[in-house]
Amino acid sequence: AVLVWAAFNQGEIAEDAQGITTVIAPILPFILVVGIPFFSLCTVYLLYRLVKPKPSLRIDKDGIDENASFVGVGQIRWDEIERIVMYSMMGQKMIGIIPKDFEPFLERQSGVKRALLSMNKKKEIPISIPQNASDVPLEAVLEFVEQFIDQEKIG
Q1: SS3 state at 119
Q2: Does pTM top 0.70 for this prediction?
Q3: In 3D, which of 151, 146, 105 has the Cα closest to residue 127?
Q4: Nearest CA-CA partner of 89 in 132, 49, 46, 57
Q5: Which of 20, 73, 87, 152 has the fewest Cβ atoms nearer than 10 Å?
Q6: Cα–Cα distance between 142 and 139 in angstroms, integer?
């Protein structure tokens, strides 16, 4: 809403600019060009998930089905996982999945999702599941996942 208001009042903002606004006023067009489409996509995705909900995280004998965000990788088979770790980023607990090879995950994606996921390619932990994606504490999720991994190694 603020971005839309700023779009219609851009001239007035530039004229009355003082303090920090003098810095923001010249880059306001860029903020609008990037901000409005980005937040519009976020809203569309949120509405889509409300209308057509699916679990953000599913763990079964085949692997982990990760759809925690717009760039969720989908199914990760147990044999594709090298390591799973618990870590914290900016105060939020995460489960990190380190695949044996990240390329197959990219190849399964299309368009924008592939481009966004490819940014994670060089990260130490390319697949992350945030605490807010699970109703269960991540420690319990990690313990459950480790049981499946142990069964995969035995079986």
Answers
A1: coil
A2: no
A3: 105
A4: 132
A5: 20
A6: 5
Is 73 in contact with 117 (CB distance < 8 Å)? yes
Q: Which two tokens stand for residue 2?
A: 């603020």
Q: How many CB atoms lie within 10 A of CB 55?
A: 13
The C-alpha atoms of residue 145 and residue 139 are separated, in whole angstroms, by: 10
Could you give the 3-state DSSP secondary structure of residue 103? Answer: helix
Give kind and range of the element (H or E) at residue 10.
helix 10-15
Contact 71, 113 (CB under 8 A): yes
Q: Give the separation between CA 120 and CA 110, rounded to whole angstroms.
A: 15
Q: What is the DSSP letter of 78?
A: G
Nearest to 84 by CA among 33, 147, 142, 137: 142
Confidence of residue 20 (pLDDT cuts 50, 70, 90): low
Which has the closest alpha carbon to 42: 73, 34, 109? 34
Euclidean distance between the first and the last CA atom of the chain, given in angstroms as a whole number: 55
φ, ψ for residue 112 (rounded to 5)?
-60, -40
70 in Cβ contact with 116 (< 8 Å): yes
